[in-house]
Automatic annotation (TrEMBL):
Signal sequence range: none
GO function term, MF aspect, one: nucleotidyltransferase activity
Principal EC category: transferase
Family annotation (CDD domains): TOPRIM_DnaG_primases (cd03364)
Record domain Toprim: where: 189-270
Entry's Gene Ontology cellular component terms: cytoplasm; primosome complex
Cross-referenced InterPro entries: DNA_helicase_N/primase_C (IPR016136), DNA_primase_core_N_sf (IPR037068), DNAG_N (IPR013264), DnaG_primase (IPR050219), TOPRIM_DnaG_bac (IPR034151), TOPRIM_dom (IPR006171)
Annotated protein name in UniProt: DNA primase
A GO biological process held by the record: DNA replication, synthesis of primer
Entry-linked SUPFAM superfamilies: DNA primase core
EC number of this enzyme: 2.7.7.-
Top-rank lineage group of the source organism: Bacteria
Transferase recorded as keyword: yes
Amino acid sequence: MDIEKLDYNDAVDSLCTKIGIEYDSATRSMGIKRKIHDKTLISEIYNLNAKLIKVFVFFLNNNQKILSYILQERRISREIVDLFNIGYLLCDVVGKSSFYDFLVSKGYSSSILSKSGLFASRREKFSILSGRLIFPIKDFKGNVVGFGGRILGKDNGSKYINLSETRVFKKRELLYGFYEGLSMIKETRSIILTEGYIDVLAFFTAGIKIAVSTLGTSFSTQHLALIKRYADKILICFDDDMAGLVATFKAYQICLPFNIDVSVIRMKYGVDPADVLKNKGVSVLSNMVNDSCDAFEYLLEKYSLKYDLNKTTDLNSMVNLFINLIGLSSTNTQRDLLLSKLESKLGVKLETLRKDYYSMREKKAIASYKKNACSYEVNTYERYLLVALLKDFNYFTIIRRNINDSDLYDIDVKKIFVCFENLFDNNNSFSLFNLKELLKNKYGSISEIFFENMLRVEFEVDDEMVKQILFAIKKRKVENRILAFKEMIKNYVSIDAKAQIRELMFLNMQRENLRIYLNE
């Protein structure tokens, strides 16, 4: 770049021509323009939503009936209504000026309105939130990314509705109330997971400012990832009905592999937190948080009432349900603790439960392997290399000089190669028996099955074939790195230009001078 006095684009273009990589500067320019367009669109949506809050709040404060519903009937405090910017959207009336026309008159284009998620796709001038209580939804940074609406009175429509997903509104990545409660969530390292927006407002009114809810979707790993950044404990507070129990079970399933403390708040005084606040008041709802128990113990208690444990079929069903749940444990200590709790609740011997547990794991592993694994046939050159190695251990030193396990894509081949390395590094004798035992102990019976099938493969092995396979693997590694740089260039990933060019030149030189190192 400095020698030839070229700018970055021309230097990369020249280098790509020399090493055979296509580089379309026009495509790159389009990529930059697309990113600028995306940023502009996001900024416009944020701007629109921030102004809409003021409109919705104005409509609420000027509608005494709706305001009375939220303050008196639902008993949400004025402080919390203001904190969450709760609003209201008037009903669109056919034949009269609509909310859509109002926004257009304020300078918003039909293009941005169509991308805001506010309006129905088939009736573009009809707001899907028309006639509803409005809940602004913010991301963890405080940007208003969308809105939810709750119907008032008796209507055939859905009780709750959210905007369609947009460039910034991703339901499975957002939690209502998370931003408003973030300071307390950080301070307490705890969070309460509820089912609805009003439940969140109820807890905040009771002074418990760590409550959140999903946006009409099931609790997901994306939600958990957000929570784990700021909290170590989750208190689940779902509705006290069968649907709430199932939702609690599913949420616990998601949390269990990630070793996070999960408890459940018992619903003794109402169907949900909003119901408790409405009928029992602030103090009862506030004290409910202290009546929580371990999530696994809660589920055991609830499901033991659902099943007739005096019947063998029901007992087996519950054992299978919880054995599969325990299978998600992140550590052996956690697994053993949960198995002990299951033993205490059901009266089934721990030894029996352990056998059921390992039997379940074995069946799942074999079923998954049969479903997803490649054919046992030698259908890749990596497997040819493995068969050659199993027939003649002397090839291992040659193979190891040229590649390592990270160069292998076939998972099953990689496992056996790692076992070879372990035997080699520990100065153990190379034998099929030692290799098989190590493989079984390290990776389980699935890898043992693959190993035995590879042993049955018959074909003649020669030095030239092994060299060609090693050459192909090394070439693939270099070419994949070149492809990765090609994508970085195409997508304009901002990295040091000089370093990028040097790396491309080095990779090209590697590709041109590939060789196989033998023992000599």
